[in-house]
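Onboarding guide, step 5: your first structure request.
Type a short instruction followed by the sequence, for example:

Predict the 3D structure of this protein.
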Amino acid sequence: MTAQAQTDLRTSSNGVSREKLLGPAARWRRHGEPRLAGSAPGVDDGVFGPGSIAWEVLLHPATIVFQSATQFILQLTYKPVFAGVRDHDPISKKARLGKLTMFDAFERGQRNSGIHAPMWLGDTDTANRVAGHLIRIHEKVKGDIIDIGAPELGGYEANSPRDSMWAALTEMHTMLWAYERLAFRGFGLPRRLPDQVRDDYIRLVKNYCRLFPHEERDLPGSMAELEALYARDADLFGGTKTLTIIPETGQDFLKLWHDSVLQNYDPSQFRVKVQLFFQNKLLKLPALAAVSGRTRRNAGISPAKERAILLARWLLLPMIWAVQQGPIERYFMRMMWGPDGVKLVMEARKLHAQAKKRARAAQAG
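The system replies with structure tokens like these:
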């Protein structure tokens, strides 16, 4: 590429260089550099902390690689979340103006893990600062209509106890699924955790939910209580032909998105296409196998396609193992978690290993 072409790419609003794709720390960082939980004397353990089952789950390479793919599958089947994205998200607003690009769509998903990592791995002050930021930016995310085809569902509000709780629960539940169904641990195949350990994980998740607006009585303390919540709010999960319609304008959100991305395509966006192939094709198939059968049905997966997905998981086990290995995992970590997220994960793994070693020594003694 000539010097002039490189300059044109950097200045083009639709052009995407490698540097732009990777992004600076500022793309993920909110309210200062995060401080790792338990990293120094006087620094508390934050929401979860070293040695916890929550850190064991979220620090595993499989979770790092598959977290976004699994989260988006479940979270977008929760109708209020989809409605909030449809009506208020910057990608929706750009799509309505015909200004949405492929990079915009990718970058929106790219920021997901890295922005949340300080709440999962940081000390209490870090977690509260980031949670407060997210609460503030979600203040306007509310509407009177979730689905024009189902007015009986009522409205949504991102900062309401119900919708805020489900946003947190769907994040954390999908990480457990990724760990149990895709994570290679030692020489064994991915496997489910014991029931008691799964309940311990959900009890810790309560601490995360408490960072956001919530009703204490609704927060689950076990897998059984979480399943009861899914049953209680079953009508709020799934998809319909009218859910994509923006109530204010009558436009189809997904069509606007598709048309705008095509209209604003630039050849340099090919590198975005490659990354979207990884996230939306290569990783999504194992992610679909990792989520629950209920979630696959809510995502519109037919029984025949579900059988094919579950079979594909077994056929793809060598690939699933490969993406958890050092160089490949580090590539996805940097791409999707950002510089601060990479630093937090790498340092947290050291603290977590030390905490587990101390726990084993205490048990042996």
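Each response can be followed by summary notes, for example: The chain has one domain: 43-363.
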